[in-house]
């Protein structure tokens, strides 16, 4: 159930995202949570390409398109100028996982260290989708992409996903969180928290991609939910260095149900599925321990 969302839309319908695009659902609700007093900075990627084909735009907010490499630097400049002018405006920086985990990471790291006041939202769809599904630092182990093709040479991507939320929290970011497009109330609350706390905050939203993951258009929300319920994509927030898990699934759902829904994992052997399950269980146990012991990330 979605409770009490504003009716106002800031990301208009009619953009050119694929039917069932998780990223479009994320942006629609992040901007609803932010409201009209907001400036958007966005790197290149699917969500920029589908929303700004000249001379059209889907954005009903002030918007600047930046390059991958300077997304957070552009936001830093805007924030510094507004501060000098004595204006209080929300700054939301959108980037895909390729823009955030890889190409724009240097600029993001610098902005975090300088302590600019913005909310960086990463639309995490596990690969460089706009250019044809290439692997990124966010792509999970064993996922088939065009640059980690599952076959005789490799079984899909051979490395694990980069633990970016923890890397960002270690920069002394006051608020870091993960969210998923299936739980809009939680996403909404995390955007509000990230905008209110002050300083460079980070929200990573799991946003399924229909052609990139290989599933039926109607299944986007179901897949996002299953990612969380199987603990494949844990939802948590790290406030001032202390982690809190924001959703603890009541059932122990096996990872197989999630993997089997997507073409990118269809080549996995029973042994590889067991290995993924073990990695998921280990990570969950690690998060529970961190939460219980109130471990400080900085
Ligand atoms: C510096 C730079 N390198 C490469 C590109 C080409 N390019 C455009 S969109 C894109 C994919 C973006 O992937 P991601 O950030 O994950 O966003 P997605 O499309 O998956 O939402 C790439 C590689 C570019 N525009 N600029
Ligand atoms: S390719 Fe994926 S991320 Fe891009 S618009 Fe389509 S569903 Fe969305
Ligand atoms: Mg991507």
Following the backbone from N to C, one meets helices and strands in this order, namely HEHEHEHHEHEHEHHEEHH
Helix share bin = 25-40%
Question: What fraction strand?
Answer: 15-25%
**Rg on CA atoms, Å:** 18 Å
Biggest sheet: strand arrangement: 2-1-3-4-6-5-7-8
Distance between the termini: 36 Å
Number of spatially distinct domains: 1
What is the averaged pLDDT score?
97
Number of strands: 8
> Low-confidence parts lasting 5 or more residues at pLDDT below 50?
none
Q: Output the CATH homologous superfamily.
A: Thiamin diphosphate (ThDP)-binding fold, Pyr/PP domains
Note the total helix count.
Answer: 11
Structural class: alpha/beta
**CATH structural architecture:** 3-Layer(aba) Sandwich
Bound molecules: thiamine diphosphate, iron/sulfur cluster, magnesium ion
Largest sheet: 8 strands, mixed
> What is the CATH level 1 assignment?
Alpha Beta
User: What is the 3D shape?
Assistant: globular
CATH topology: Rossmann fold
Please describe what this structure looks like.
This protein has 298 residues and is of the alpha/beta class. The protein has one domain: Thiamin diphosphate (ThDP)-binding fold, Pyr/PP domains (Rossmann fold, 3-Layer(aba) Sandwich). It contains eleven helices and eight strands. The protein has helices at residues 22-34, 46-51, 71-84, 97-103, 105-114, 164-169, 184-197, 210-213, 220-229, 255-259, 270-293, and strands at residues 38-43, 63-66, 90-96, 118-124, 175-180, 200-206, 236-239, 242-245. An eight-stranded mixed β-sheet has the order 2-1-3-4-6-5-7-8, with helices on both faces. The longest helix is centred in the C-terminal third of the chain and has 24 residues, at 270-293. The chain starts with 21 loop residues before the first helix and ends in a 5-residue tail after the last helix. The mean pLDDT is 97. Bound molecules: thiamine diphosphate (TPP), iron/sulfur cluster (SF4) and magnesium ion. Thiamine diphosphate is lined by residues 23, 44-47, 68-69, 96-99, 103, 123, 125, 128-131, 136.
């Amino acid at each position: 159930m979605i409770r009490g969302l504003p009716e106002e839309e800031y990301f208009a319908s009619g953009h050119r995202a694929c039917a069932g695009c998780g990223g479009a659902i994320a942006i629609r609700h992040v901007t609803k949570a932010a409201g009209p007093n907001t400036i958007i900075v966005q790197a290149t990627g699917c969500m920029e390409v589908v929303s700004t084909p000249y001379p059209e735009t889907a954005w009903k907010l002030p918007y600047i398109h930046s390059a991958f490499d300077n997304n957070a630097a552009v936001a830093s400049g805007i924030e510094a100028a507004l501060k000098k002018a004595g204006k209080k405006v929300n700054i939301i920086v959108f980037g895909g996982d390729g823009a955030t985990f890889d190409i724009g990471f240097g600029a993001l790291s610098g902005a975090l260290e300088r302590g600019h006041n913005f909310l960086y939202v990463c639309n995490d769809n596990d690969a460089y989708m706009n250019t044809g599904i290439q692997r990124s630092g966010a792509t999970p182990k064993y996922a088939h992409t065009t640059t980690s093709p599952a076959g005789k040479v490799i079984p899909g991507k051979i490395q694990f996903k980069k633990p970016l939320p923890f890397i960002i929290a270690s920069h002394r970011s006051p608020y870091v969180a993960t969210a998923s497009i299936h739980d809009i109330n939680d996403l909404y609350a995390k955007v509000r928290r990230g905008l209110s706390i002050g300083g460079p905050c980070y929200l990573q939203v799991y946003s399924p991609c229909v052609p990139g993951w290989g599933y039926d258009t109607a299944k986007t929300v179901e897949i996002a939910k299953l990612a969380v319920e199987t603990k494949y994509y844990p939802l948590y927030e790290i406030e001032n260095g202390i982690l809190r898990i924001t959703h603890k699934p009541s059932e122990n759902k096996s990872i197989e149900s999630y993997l089997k829904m997507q073409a990118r994992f269809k080549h996995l052997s029973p042994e590889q599925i067991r290995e993924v399950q073990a990695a998921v269980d280990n990570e969950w146990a690690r998060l529970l321990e961190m939460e219980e012991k109130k471990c400080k990330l900085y």
